Amino acid sequence: MAYDPEVHHRRSIRLQGYDYHRAGVYFVTICSHNRACLFGEVDGEMRLNDAGRMVERWFLELNRKFERVETDTYIVMPDHLHGIVVLGNSPLGATDLPFCLGSDDDQRSVLGVALPTMVQWLKTMTTNEYIRGIKQERWPSFLGRLWQRGYFEHVVRDEDDLAQIRQYIVDNPTNWGLDRESKRM
Known about the structure:
185 residues, alpha+beta, two-stranded antiparallel ribbon, 35% helix, globular
């Protein structure tokens, strides 16, 4: 079926009117297509396979690829990646973090790269390398695409929000079995 904007329209989950070029702290979750478990397994802790280590390597590469970008707490899970990305010059842990929903003064710093551009770059690089892994290393194949079309992002609002998200990421392997059980019910 050909693309028809009257039929094929997706509602955006992005903050309406928000400029994702702005300096700030963002929590991002990217899921594999159909939640396929391709990046390792959880056995009390997350055990990355080669594909999972590849995703981790490309996530950390964001620090070098894009100016004024810093990655923070992250985890690659069997079927998704959680990560915190800071756009701007403030080091994490500093009291002057550029939280995105602060005062107008906090939001004046606009960067050259937008969060969606970084996520798309990460998806492209990991997909290309994963395809090479299928051909050369016999990694499990995927159906259609490696990643789901969209991704989840949360604009971190303050230090408390950041602390809760960091803890959520750290606890993710522990909660893996609980989350999967609740989805079956």
